[in-house]
Design goal:
Elements lengths: L20 E4 L5 H8 L8 E4 L9 H11 L4 E4 L13 H14 L4 E4 L2 E3 L3 E6 L5 H18 L4 E3 L13 H12 L2 E5 H11 L3 H6 L6 E6 L3 E4 L2 E3 L8 H14 L4 E3 L8 H24 L1
Parallel strand pairs: 1-2, 1-12, 2-3, 3-4, 4-7, 7-8, 8-9, 9-12
Antiparallel strand pairs: 5-6, 10-11
Helix pairs in contact: 1-2, 4-5, 8-9
Length: 294
């Protein structure tokens, strides 16, 4: 087996061909998206989906998906790999993900920096301890996945509401995993904001400590305000103003990175999502103009 790519310290982690504003593909608007993509009407620069939900899907939905991935770049964002868990990795599933990516020309595979199984899927993304022991454990599993796929993956910082144990700040934990695993980061801006409220830290300082060369792309989404000091990551609302402001800060720090809009519940008409994508693109253009004019 070939070894993974050289350590990515001084070059961008963004895959070639990934740019602009992307949309999380959901079955609720699959047919409309495929129809729009045949003409000029699907104003998305790339798509993202969970391969867990699409591996083995054939028939009309499979054909519609293939028609989309023939026209737009695709990234894969997993839900069930259980990177932080203690059960053996599902290596056959990882290989199936690799075949799916090859079929659809997917540019990157990302997963959550979390655990989600204990003798069976728990259908939730549960937080890891922010400890050195957890860094070593999850980094070893990430390296194994990268060896199986023969490609780098990205891990996503997750939202959470309690931490099992804490020896370091969240951002130090995330950066330590990136370094030890030699992997990349899917930086979820909404999750940074949610955790900053729930745990009382500065989200702008968090972004400033992320190594830019490790960031593959960004996520934005909405959340539910349970209390002023408790936010719930739902992906069920439009992106709120504090997340837009933090996204603009991320662009100032990292550049106008490719950015994916997530929406999983209370999904509005596709036209509404595309309008949010247009705002992402406007923020990216604004940052590009700032960079040109100093």
């Amino acid at each position: 087996m070939r070894r993974r790519q050289v350590r990515r310290r001084d070059v961008s982690a963004v895959p070639p061909g990934l740019r602009g504003a992307g949309l999380g593909l959901r079955r609720a608007f699959l047919e409309e998206a495929a129809e729009r993509a045949r003409g000029p009407g699907l104003e998305a620069d790339f798509l993202e989906l969970a391969p867990d939900n699409w591996i083995g899907v054939g028939g009309r939905q499979g054909r519609l998906l293939r028609s989309l991935t023939e026209r737009l770049p695709l990234v894969c964002h997993g839900l069930s790999l259980n990177l932080g868990g203690t059960a053996p990795l599902e290596e056959d599933f990882v290989r199936a993900v690799g075949r799916f990516m090859d079929t659809h020309g997917a540019l990157i595979y990302s997963e959550h920096l979390a655990w989600c199984a204990d003798g069976g899927q728990l259908y939730d993304l549960l937080p890891l301890p922010w400890t050195a022991e957890a860094v070593h454990h999850v980094a070893a599993r990430i390296r194994r996945v990268q060896d199986l796929l023969d490609r780098r993956i990205a891990v996503e910082n997750v939202s959470c509401y309690a931490v099992p144990a804490q020896e370091m700040d969240e951002v130090d934990f995330v950066c330590a995993v990136l370094e030890e695993a030699d992997c990349d980061l899917l930086l979820d801006v909404n999750n940074v904001h949610v955790n900053s409220v729930n745990f009382g830290f500065d989200p702008y300082a968090y972004i400033d400590r992320i190594p830019p060369a490790r960031v593959a792309y960004l996520h934005v989404a909405g959340h539910y305000v349970e209390r002023p000091d408790l936010l719930i990551d739902t992906h069920g609302t439009a992106v709120p103003d504090p997340v837009w402001r933090l996204l603009e800060h991320a662009y100032r720090r990292l550049g106008p990175m490719p950015t994916l809009l997530e929406r999983d519940f209370d999904i509005p008409p596709l036209e509404t999502l595309l309008a949010e994508l247009a705002r992402v693109r406007a923020c990216q253009r604004g940052r590009a103009r700032e960079a040109v004019h100093g």
